[in-house]
Amino acid sequence: MGEITNVMEYEAIAKEKLPKMVFDYYASGAEDQWTLQENRNAFSRILFRPRILIDVSKIDMNTTVLGFKISMPIMIAPTAMQKMAHPEGEYATARAASAAGTIMTLSSWSTSSVEEVASTGPGIRFFQLYVYKDRNVVAQLVRRAERAGFKAIALTVDTPRLGRREADIKNRFTLPPFLTLKNFQGLDLGKMDEANDSGLAAYVAGQIDRSLSWKNILCLYQDFSFECDVMLYE
């Protein structure tokens, strides 16, 4: 790890070390992965304009997100099932975000619960939320996140129809048997059944609300009386 000089090098190392099903889940997109490539291309088009003869002896990259001060304009986006990659999973990510002075957004489909992540120590944390058909499940998740000290809800809006993730289909992706979606433990929603194609696709089709619209978003906000901020995420 000491030889890594560029963040892109992590992907090559991960491909060597992780099981193919796990690596493909993290690394791939849907269908021809056109959107995935376009996202990378979009970042590559962002240029920094150098300012010449400016005092740079003290550089301050601090900024704020929803009123929370962070050390740099970089946050950790929600990534599901992190313990597939390492036993520490979301624990390590939470500690790293706190040490770096930035925000971690915890996935609903994490392999550590909101309470477990909160127990790792102080830090500014947001919670990424999927809207399930069973609104009681959604309400429970929001309340638990609030009690655990999470400061905002990142509401995912692009999952009612999951993209056709071809790598997951080929690998017959499912959550390894020694792991669960910890936020759903005890609700009979913490496991993914094996399927003829993708266990994730079958799970989403069975649980996530396909009728999600702006009307639902307003109802959710009013019914649950959020005490934290809400932002849309895709």
TrEMBL record:
The lineage of its organism: Eukaryota, Viridiplantae, Streptophyta, Embryophyta, Tracheophyta. This is FMN hydroxy acid dehydrogenase domain-containing protein. GO terms for biological process: oxidative photosynthetic carbon pathway. It holds the Pfam family FMN_dh. One of its GO terms (molecular function) is FMN binding. Its cofactor is FMN. Belongs to the FMN-dependent alpha-hydroxy acid dehydrogenase family. Keywords: Flavoprotein, FMN, Glycolate pathway, Oxidoreductase. CDD domains: alpha_hydroxyacid_oxid_FMN. Residues 1-234 form the FMN hydroxy acid dehydrogenase domain. It catalyses: glycolate + O2 = glyoxylate + H2O2. Pathway: Photosynthesis; photorespiration; glycine from 2-phosphoglycolate: step 2/3. It comes from Citrus sinensis (Sweet orange). The keyword Cell wall biogenesis/degradation does not apply. Transmembrane segments: none annotated.
